[in-house]
Amino acid sequence: MSPFNATKVTCFCAGHCPNVDDFNESNGTCVTKPGGYCFAAVEQVYNVDTLSLEEEFTYGCLPPEENGLMQCKAHLVPHSIPKSIACCNSGNLCNLYIKPVIAPHIDETDNSDLIIKYAPIALCAIIIVCVSFIYLYIKFKNKTKNSLQNVLLEEGTSSMDEKKAAFKEFADQSIGSGSGSGVPLLVQRTIAKQTELIKSVGKGRYGEVWKGLYRGENVAVKMFLTTEEASWFREQEIYQTALLNHDNILGFIAADIRGTGSWTQLLLITDFHDNGSLYDYLQTRVLDEYSMLKLMHSALNGLCHLHSEIVGKQTKPAIAHRDIKSKNILVKLDGTCLIADFGLAVRYDSKTKEIDIAPNTRVGTKRYMAPEILSETLNKDNFDAYRQADLYSMALVLWEIGRRCAINGIVEEYQVPYFDCVPNDPTFEDMRKVVCVDGRRPSFSAKWKQSQTLATISRTIAECWHQTPCVRLPSLRVKKNLAKLLDAANRTL
């Protein structure tokens, strides 16, 4: 394998390629991150039709991180099922020309004594694990049939100590170790107990956010009201979805429930970002075209990852956010965005065709609601409808960002969408009339026409907030459009 370099490489990719900068469905290629490389892998699989072993080849892109390095060394490790992998980054499509060879089988006759000796022990261990898993699964299903509020309202659960115990019991059954971001349950609780609260940095209808300190590192501690138990449970559940980790999605650390002596707290601990939300950031910043495009592209990058389903040995369901707004997007120190707040998120499994919507009385933010939600015509049985509603909301966010870009010395003051049409806290009916009946959208000032970049973005925004959902651009297309503009702006610096 050739030494790594800092360039991107185009690789042959037969199928879906997760965790790469770009995947081209039309010609089956992917583009690695800088320093990444291409791979070709071969594995012996059993063909039930021919009743024989066959070689199956797969191709794709690998990231430059250590887990990618380990995959490239997989051929050095003995496997019960023969397989091998070869990697390269010497040029575009280099993995088409490398042919990994399956290592010979381990001589099973030499190990027959060991197999005879340890087979009964291994069989017993497998049986114990299976029985334990079934028991815990049944216990979990039975426990979570009752919501936390029902537990608290049960007769006999009147004292604060009993309520704390009920919360704890619910947490024991509801929070798993998770296969996505975050850490195992016991470690999460240890982190929560050792986190020191420093100061309150924000309040909302769900609760309050504090800046905290864990072992010298800043963390954000989101405290949910007990009436928002469904949002707390859903959010930590979404954060721990496999393969959700992404540069433009807020990093999850831990979730826990604890008592303070006077009430019970539902905690969600995440990475802390000094810049706060995009809403706060735009209040005081004037942007140039490059910094504006960084914010826009990174926000779409996070949304695109959410919307995408990843299929493979590890899978990630497609996820729709359902509450996209500038207050639910954070800004990192490098001027890029992070998607946050998944209390209303919905998941979709393409294999079962099931849309997983957690029961929650909370609704999205009225100001950012799509026309089909306000008119109550959204097709709840079609997952694409939720993604299209997200794109409408994201278009409003892009409009907010664009207003703060200075063109020829002209910059508009920060305003929320529809600031000139509805009150500060609009009702559902206020928004329905403006968006659905009157068909109004936020206006573009003359400044947007003075810049070719802003003019292009305004056309993209208009397509994304179109009255007809199916006309709206998908998040991947918007991401690619913004990536081209960002690349052009970067070349001029």
> How much helix, percentage-wise, in residues?
25-40%
User: What count of helical segments does DSSP give?
Assistant: 13
How confident is the prediction overall: mean pLDDT? 81
Q: Order the strands across the largest sheet as they lie in space.
A: 7-8-9-11-10
Tell me the major beta sheet: 5 strands, antiparallel
How would you characterize this protein structure?
This protein is an alpha+beta fold. The chain has helices spanning 66-72, 112-143, 148-153, 160-174, 185-194, 229-239, 278-284, 289-307, 371-374, 383-403, 428-437, 452-464, 475-492; strands at residues 10-12, 22-24, 29-31, 37-47, 52-62, 83-88, 196-203, 207-214, 217-224, 252-259, 264-271, 318-320, 329-331, 337-339, 346-349, 354-357. It folds into three domains: 10-103, CD59; 143-271, Phosphorylase Kinase, domain 1 (2-Layer Sandwich), CATH 3.30.200.20; 278-492, Transferase(Phosphotransferase), domain 1 (Orthogonal Bundle), CATH 1.10.510.10. α8 runs antiparallel to α10 (383-403) and α8 runs antiparallel to α13 (475-492). The longest helix has 32 residues, at 112-143. The radius of gyration is 26 Å and the shape is globular. It starts with 9 loop residues before the first strand and ends with a helix. 35% of the residues are buried. Mean pLDDT is 81; it is low at 105-110, 143-161 and 163-180. It is a single-pass type I membrane protein. Residues 195-486 form the Protein kinase domain. Pfam families: Activin_recp (PF01064), Pkinase (PF00069), TGF_beta_GS (PF08515).
